[in-house]
Amino acid sequence: MNFGNSHSLNNISLTVIWDGISYELQTFPNEYRSLMMLIFDRIGPEEFGVCLGMGKCGTCLVEIIQGHTLTDFDRNENTTLAKHGVNNLSIRMACQLLIDEQCNGMIVKII
């Protein structure tokens, strides 16, 4: 069995823009449960993802510049976005965005 780089064919590359700097991130499906955890682990912005993915605080808001914008929202995400006055489908909570092959090539900006 080869346990080396067995998921290299399924690599996911995405770009995260934070504070004017672009970060090119590489991951693979199921390495992180959400975009928030990937950003938190690899970039570590202060006060990002305060509720740890519960969809309640709104500290992980991102704007999807390029890539898929899913229209399915968790009920907490809808409520939290409304609380922050967000009604733009390209603005999402990173904790509610699962990392999968559809994220390959995605560009997001931390708000």
Give the arrangement of secondary structure elements.
Layout (H helix, E strand, L loop, with lengths): L11 E7 L2 E7 L7 H8 L18 E6 L8 H9 L7 E3 L13 E4 L1
Q: Could you write a compact summary of the structure shown?
A:
The protein is an alpha+beta fold and 111 residues long.
Topology as H/E string? EEHEHEE
Mean pLDDT: 87
Largest sheet: 5 strands, mixed
Number of helices: 2
Pairing-aware structural class of the strands and helices?
alpha+beta
β-strand number: 5
The Rg value, from CA coordinates, equals 14 Å
Parts with pLDDT < 50 across at least 5 consecutive residues: 1-7
Distance N terminus to C terminus? 43 Å
Largest sheet: spatial strand order: 2-1-5-3-4
Please state roughly what percent of the residues sit in beta strands, choosing from under 5%, 5-15%, 15-25%, 25-35%, 35-45% or over 45%.
15-25%
Q: Which of globular, elongated, flat, extended, rod-shaped describes the shape?
A: globular
State the helical fraction. 10-25%
